[in-house]
Write a structure and sequence with these properties.
alpha/beta, 13 strands, globular
Length: about 300
Amino acid sequence: MLLACSGPKAPAPLPPGCFAFGVFGDGPYRVWEEGRFRRLVRDVDGADLAWLFHIGDIFWYPCSDGHYNEMLAKMNAIQHPVVYTPGDNEWTDCHEGLAGDFQPLERLARLRATFFSDPSRTLGTRPMRVVSQAADPAHAEFVENVRWVRGGFVCATIHVVGSGDAAEAFPGRTAEDDAEVVRRQDAAVAWLEEAFAVAHADSLKGVILAMHAEPGFARAENADFGRLVNRLRELVLGFDGQVLLLHGDGHTFVVDHPLWDPPLRPDPIDTFTRIETFGSPDIGWVRVVVDSVNGRIVDVEPRLVSRWWL
């Protein structure tokens, strides 16, 4: 896999047989980041992209309807399909005073109604058709989990958030909050399994997954995500193609192979790659180039927006 340094120049033209997509998340949080975000959008708009992932944490606070609508308008102004999966800032952590003292489950319902009013289409000025998990009556509320196929890859978003995947304690937490975590985690594993089932059934070359949370791949860190990580490991080991996981939450650009299969394999599983995108105070995005002929990720280009230009 090749890594390229970002800069003010436009991304290089795509090689024959390739397509590209972008990854952004965890911002903008603060007023002084808005100028960099506008420049990021101009950079994204000028790039040859099949779509842009927003992997959550669309703001820091408040969790008001007005702030939701403001961010929805900004996403819908982007000149590509925008595939959004929620982060913890926009519903899980909304109980905090700074965020507005909201009930998280009430905010989750409002978030879904605002950003996923049509689960069959993405956001952006050129929305893209997708398949939503909500099409299954057994998972009717999970409008945010979507899937599509492009260039030999099945792509899917999975609603998995920080703050312990919404399991952390907060004043006023109820049994209903606990039940939501279990149901959403059940849906996440089911949707993950469906993505790999599509890849097998259609003889696809790869799987691309996007979610918000950094799941803590080390055993000591994945108490809240262990079931998902363990099932992901099993599915990766049973699939011959490449698997790419995109996430945010840690606010640091990372490309690595963090999935292991101990004790049978002493080395990382090299068919699995993780990309974590930038996050506040860094405002940047990642361009990923996919070779659809050979079924490979061939370029990962970080495009960090300078702090010093308006």
